[in-house]
Amino acid sequence: MTSLGEDLLPSTRRALLHRIAVAQRDGRAPSLVAAVGRQGRTAWSGARTCVDGHAPDADTQYRIGSITKTFTAVLVLRLRDEGLIDLDDPLEKHLPGTGVGGATVFQLLCHSAGLGAETPAPWWERTPGSLRPEIADVLGARPHMHPAGHRHHYSNPGYTLLGSLVEAVRGVSWEEALRREILEPLGMHRTTSAPVAPHAGGWAVHPWADVMLSEPAEDLGIMAPAGQLWSTAEDLLRFAAFLAGGDDRVLSASSVREMRTPAAPVEVGGSGYGLGLQIVGCEGRVLFGHSGSLPGFVAGLWVCEEEDVAAVALANATSGLPAATVAAELLNIVVEAEPRIPEPWRPLPEVDDELLALTGVWHWGTSTFTLSLTGDRGLQLTPLGGTGRGAAFTYRPDGTWAGQNDYYAGETLRVVRKDDGSVDHLDLGSFVFTREPYEAGAAVPGGVDAEGWRGLGG
């Protein structure tokens, strides 16, 4: 057993250790390693094992399965940011002859290309990749299960295609691009395509008896971009810190934010999926990350941006222990016990009188809103009373603002002035906001009744 975490209270450390101890026992996993990161550094790590006197630690490799997909997505977003591809490009533009028709890079990233979930038999996770040397062997005779763009349907072959796209555009192997463009810049020296000691062995545990069976660790070949990687809890916390804030050596903060924005419709009750990242609601918070599994291993990685906390759980059992759930629970333990202390309030560095004059109460019809000034000339529209559509807006060089979320995402907010230069109204995607409800003389669509407001007898 190991337990590190001098940054956390003793009661929090004990709660974390208790959770992984229960998880390892109830999940009947040969071993379990977990770690929690806070503010970009490891705050705690711990392990449980069935082997007396020996336990893995945060530097022990486990196979991480589909968390590999997030790495592949980062490589693809790098190509887009460099102008080498567009996410709306059909895959066939860069990788002709695949047989996936007009499926786009974007659709492949968010699993909405309509491709099948798995390869043709035999089961790709438990057989050598040499059995499927070509893309045609991965897709089979009927690659499409659904029309492209119509629904979220998780696809392992889809990420094989994205890995092949990286190779075609970069002119190097997926493994080489991964090492050079992500692992080395982020200092993830214990993340590899093949296991490097110390590493855990993969096991299947009998469902009705406490006995184990060794699982094969196959090289997945062309399927590697969907689930090949081995990593450690420590390395995955480094990756989590990158996913939370970006790193210009790898991918900008705006691009990683794009990755964790829901991008495809999901089934009722399902979690969201961005570009290589799962998005889930948990205890009133939004987490992003990914789960992973391959025969002998389960893994989970979650990040809460608001609280700046990340958690990893890795186990070497084919099933039984829900590593992704455990990771989320560890994150919640820390957030509930030791919520993030906010930064001190500070005034804006400077005041723009014209912007300041826009703040205060505005009306859309008879609905009342407040407009607040934020940093970098941004604006925040908030419904008064809690009902209505609010949004944050960022300033554009042309003097307008762009909506950043929800209904108004991408919509333009602009100030409409009278001939004398004074403000007449705000226009938000054709919605007119005035200082008074249905203000007389303002450019309200449909006009304002000249007789004005009246009572029942008016």
Can you lay out the helices and strands and say which pair or pack?
Blueprint: E1 3-4, H1 10-27, E2 31-38, E3 41-49, E4 62-63, H2 68-81, H3 91-94, H4 105-109, H5 135-139, H6 156-170, H7 174-186, E5 203-205, E6 212-214, H8 224-227, E7 230-231, H9 233-245, H10 253-259, E8 272-273, E9 278-282, E10 285-294, E11 297-304, E12 309-315, H11 323-337, H12 353-358, E13 360-364, E14 367-373, E15 379-383, E16 391-395, E17 401-403, E18 412-417, E19 423-428, E20 431-433
Antiparallel strand pairs: 1-3, 2-3, 2-12, 4-7, 5-6, 8-9, 9-10, 10-11, 11-12, 13-14, 14-15, 15-16, 16-17, 17-18, 18-19, 19-20
Domain Beta-lactamase-related: 24-331
Organism: Streptomyces pakalii
EC number: 3.1.1.103
- The dominant shape is globular
> How far is the N terminus from the C terminus?
80 Å
For the largest beta sheet, what order do the strands appear in spatially?
A: 1-3-2-12-11-10-9-8
Overall tally of structural domains: 2
Tell me about the largest β-sheet.
8 strands, antiparallel
Task: State the main characteristics.
22% strand; 20 strands; AmpC-like; 458 residues; alpha+beta; Lipocalin; 2 domains; hydrolase; eight-stranded antiparallel β-sheet; Beta-lactamase
Describe the protein:
The chain has 458 residues and is α+β, with helices and mostly antiparallel strands. The chain has 2 domains: 3-337, DD-peptidase/beta-lactamase superfamily (Beta-lactamase, 3-Layer(aba) Sandwich); 353-433, Lipocalin (Beta Barrel), CATH 2.40.128. The chain is 26% helix and 22% strand. It has helices at residues 10-27, 68-81, 91-94, 105-109, 135-139, 156-170, 174-186, 224-227, 233-245, 253-259, 323-337, 353-358; strands at 3-4, 31-38, 41-49, 62-63, 203-205, 212-214, 230-231, 272-273, 278-282, 285-294, 297-304, 309-315, 360-364, 367-373, 379-383, 391-395, 401-403, 412-417, 423-428, 431-433. It has an 8-stranded antiparallel sheet with strand order 1-3-2-12-11-10-9-8, sandwiched between helices. It has an 8-stranded antiparallel sheet with strand order 13-14-15-16-17-18-19-20. GO terms for molecular function: hydrolase activity.
